[in-house]
Amino acid sequence: MADTEATTGPGTAADPVTRWRPVAGRSLAGARKDSRSTRAWRVGSSAAIVTAVVLAVLIVPPLVNLDEQAVHLADKLLPPSAAHPFGTDDVGRDLLVRCVYGLRVSLLVGVVAAVVATVIGTAVGALAASAGGWVDRVVMRLVDVFSSVPHLLLGIFIVAMFRPGVWPVVISVALTHWLSTARIVRAEVLSLRSRPYVDAAISGGASRWRVTVRHLLPGVLPQAGLAAVLMVPHAIWHESALSFLGLGLPTHQASLGTLVQGARSSLLAGDWWPTLFPGLFIIVPTLAIAGLAGAWRDRINPRRRSELML
């Protein structure tokens, strides 16, 4: 009996806890290493895609002058080849060039709209949190009211008031995407108001405006910048949806949404490339931007990153 207890008691090789503890430790370390390598690969690939996209939209348009009205019926709906890597559209225009031009327009809309929406959301959120009281309640109730309306529906209403063009789409996207930034900034300002240096500034006689500008706004800039970067993919999708519905840019102007919209009849006829490549130009760059934004989020919030690693 003593021999049996000696071979199966705690601390022996037969003890399940002791036997599996080293394995569990190695598994946890391996999981952390795999998580870091996966994150590094994701960030590297996202950065490479974003760099390629930026270089393409900066280099290709000056080298290739796209004629929006050009028609080459002899090259109509050619499949991908060495001469036309992405094939041609229903009037013979090179799809690779048109996708690059469309991506340039979509990025312009996305970046400008994200910046404008971030400025509006930061101002509204900081105002609500700094003023407090009934101002905070009224502003946030207005934010709730606008949030209850679907973005696309409100965007259609705004775009319908203008002629088709780039800037109506920018205005539409900006006016429908500042709400989440306002909530984030308000929460961050409320958190910063309880910091000792803010109490010291108020005790020293600093005005509410000075405290907001000098102490609170600099503290929310990282979160506001992250919100702007995360908003760029959403703005690109929003522009593509409006253009696909025929409410964004003119149908002859190259944008990713108009390219997909114009390729519907070709897809029904069995020609897949006019739809596939513009769709990839929407999906791949936006996922890459979102990947970089996720890496930025993990950097400014290490606690969340450590929780993900565990």
UniProtKB/TrEMBL annotation:
Residues 103-293 form the ABC transmembrane type-1 domain. Signal peptide: none annotated. Keywords: Cell membrane, Membrane, Transmembrane, Transmembrane helix, Transport. The keyword Secreted does not apply. GO terms for biological process: transmembrane transport. Pfam families: BPD_transp_1. Gene3D superfamilies: MetI-like. Its main location: membrane. PROSITE patterns: ABC_TM1. It is a multi-pass membrane protein. The chain crosses the membrane at residues 40-60, 105-130, 142-160, 216-237, 276-296. It is found in: Cell membrane. Belongs to the binding-protein-dependent transport system permease family. This is ABC transporter permease. It comes from Streptomyces silvensis.
